[in-house]
Design a protein that fits this description.
The chain has two domains: 38-118 and 322-354, Uridine Diphospho-n-acetylenolpyruvylglucosamine Reductase, domain 2 (2-Layer Sandwich), CATH 3.30.43; 119-321 and 355-388 and 390-448, Cytochrome P450 (Cytochrome p450). 52% of the residues lie in helices and 10% in strands. It has helices spanning 2-25, 27-38, 54-58, 62-73, 92-101, 112-118, 129-141, 144-147, 151-166, 173-190, 195-209, 223-234, 240-271, 273-289, 299-302, 306-319, 350-353, 401-418, and strands at residues 76-81, 84-89, 106-108, 171-172, 327-329, 333-335, 338-340, 345-348, 419-423, 430-432, 436-438, 443-448. The strands form four sheets. It has a five-stranded mixed β-sheet with strand order 1-2-8-5-3. Helix 9 (151-166) packs antiparallel against helix 10 (173-190), helix 13 packs across helix 16 and helix 14 packs across helix 18 (401-418). The protein starts with a helix and ends in a 9-residue tail after the last strand. Residues 108, 123-124, 135, 138, 142, 185, 188, 249-250, 253-254, 257-258, 261, 321-322, 325, 390-392, 396-400, 403-404 line the site of protoporphyrin IX containing FE.
Length: 457
């Protein structure tokens, strides 16, 4: 018996030796090894073991962190943040490579906590067939044909928000804008939703917004009703968790983003009275043609607000509220002679591209004329390809961009024609929560334009 066992061991040993020898001389394997050696990682620094450079990123203005790296290492550099090795890309060509032309080599990736909070079936976390299918559904509910019907409702939501701000002393502009963009998000997902359910949804969503992991998949007594509403709207059957995750996902994607940009728009207009006058002039003419606001805005009018439109575009550029987007290499990828190893995160840095003087001269100056447009808001001089990506690019580019622009145009229309505002306290500084917004959410006092009372004491 012992003899047989001994023979077996020898046999296995010989097999292992043979396998190792064969693999060593396997030309395919050899080639891969030589290739990997030939390709080098991009320049950069990986910081401390485990924590990498996360502390450096969060202990300073992220702008400075990225800008310093780009100055030191160029448009492609490696770092290690939030527990992941990462290649950051600061050129338009590299952004296009990752997001558009070689998008199939990179999958979307988010911190696990975010995925758990929103729900793993939400479209941003996927690629391929499931993503395509969902994206078509979401896109159809955010298409121009769908959103143009929402104009009167968005106007109502905007006017009542502005009225409420004017009745208060000082408001946190960003917090109030979040309420507005959330209401518009609900409109785009559910259409008209009964007041009771809307309030319940808001209450529950607030929990998600604060970072808890417990969004109830069904609101008491209303799950069936809502699921049906959404099913009807999307015209397809999805599982309940797919519906829930995507509802939360869309609301999540719609709220802080739009609210941050709106807050910046108010700051930029406040800081440039001449520009504010030009916007007022444009909007007052539209208001008068609507009988002093007696008639609702039309789709055509919202498509013909060139001055305001340019302010929105320049605000999107200046604020760059989505600093970068995260992808993960699904295989070893070679870019410009550098290796991006499989499993590494890849981040196209919008925040470094938008303020690059090569693409936008005098980039720190707020200058809407860079986005010169025809009367119908089609671009006269478009920025160079892939240099202006506030809504991303490629298969995951923002499907809500038209709605975002529409709600911003509508709010600004009512704001400048009927109200005025004054920023209170410090007028400079940025805070990140996580998107950049003016310090303390831009505290401001609002008043009615027609009011004879002086509101700003
Ligand atoms: C000014 C406001 C907004 C900005 C700046 C913005 C920006 C972006 C960006 C940069 C992306 C791409 C992210 C990536 O590539 O990883 C994105 C995706 C997305 N956005 Fe927006 N967004 C805004 C408003 C909205 C609104 C109003 C909605 C919906 C009502 C929305 C829904 C979405 C969805 C569903 C995705 C994921 C698309 C996909 O993965 O296929 N966004 N957004």
């Amino acid at each position: 018996m012992q003899y047989v066992m001994g023979m077996m061991h020898t046999f296995i040993y010989i097999l292992l030796c043979l396998y190792t020898l064969l693999s060593y001389f396997n030309p395919k394997k050899q080639k891969r090894k030589t290739n990997e050696k030939a390709k080098k990682l991009p320049p950069g620094s990986m910081g401390w073991p485990y924590i990498g450079e996360t502390l450096q990123l969060y202990s300073q203005d992220p702008n400075d962190f990225f800008a310093k790296k780009q100055r030191r290492y160029g448009d492609i550099f490696k770092t290690h943040i939030l527990g992941c090795p990462c290649v950051m890309l600061a050129s338009p060509e590299a952004a296009r490579f990752v997001l558009v032309t070689r998008a199939y080599l990179f999958k979307p990736t988010y911190p696990k906590s975010k995925e758990t909070m929103i729900g793993s079936s939400a479209l941003f976390f996927h690629q391929g067939d499931y993503h395509n299918h969902l994206r078509k559904l979401v896109q159809s509910s955010l298409s121009p044909e769908a959103i143009r019907k929402l104009i009167p409702d968005i106007e109502d939501v905007g006017i009542s928000a502005l009225e409420s701000w004017a009745s208060e002393q000082v408001i946190n502009t960003f917090h109030e804008m979040k309420k507005f963009s959330f209401e518009v998000g609900i409109l785009s997902v559910f259409g008209h939703l009964d007041e009771k359910y809307r309030e319940e949804l808001k209450e529950n969503y607030c929990v998600v917004d604060k970072g808890y992991n417990s969004f109830p998949t069904s609101l008491p007594g209303t799950a069936y009703h809502k699921a049906n509403l959404v099913r009807k709207r999307l015209g397809q059957t999805l599982t309940e968790s797919q519906i829930t995750d995507n509802i939360i996902g869309v609301l999540f994607a719609a709220q802080d983003t739009t609210a941050s940009v709106l807050t910046w728009i108010l700051k930029y207009l406040h800081d440039d009275q001449k520009l504010l006058e030009a916007v007022k002039e444009e909007q007052k003419a539209i208001n008068e043609s609507n009988g002093g606001g007696k008639k609702p805005l039309t789709w055509a009018q919202t498509r013909n607000m060139p001055v305001t439109y340019k302010v929105i575009m320049e605000s999107l550029r200046m604020a760059s509220i989505i600093s970068f987007t995260f992808r993960e290499a699904v295989v070893d990828v070679e870019y410009e002679g550098y290796l991006i190893p499989k499993g590494w995160k890849v981040t196209p840095l919008f925040r470094n591209i938008h303020p690059n003087p090569e693409f936008f001269p005098d980039p720190k100056h707020f200058d809407p004329s860079r986005f010169e447009v025809h009367d119908n808001c089609t671009a006269k001089v478009a920025p160079k390809p892939n240099t202006f990506m506030p809504f991303g690019n490629g298969v995951h580019a923002c499907p809500g961009n038209e709605l975002a622009k529409l709600e911003m145009l509508i709010l600004v229309h009512h704001l400048v024609t009927k109200f005025r505002w004054e920023v209170v306290g410090s007028q400079s500084g940025i805070e990140y929560g996580p998107f950049p917004v003016p310090l303390k959410g831009l505290p401001a006092k609002f008043g009615k334009e027609s009011s004879t009372q002086e509101v700003f004491i």
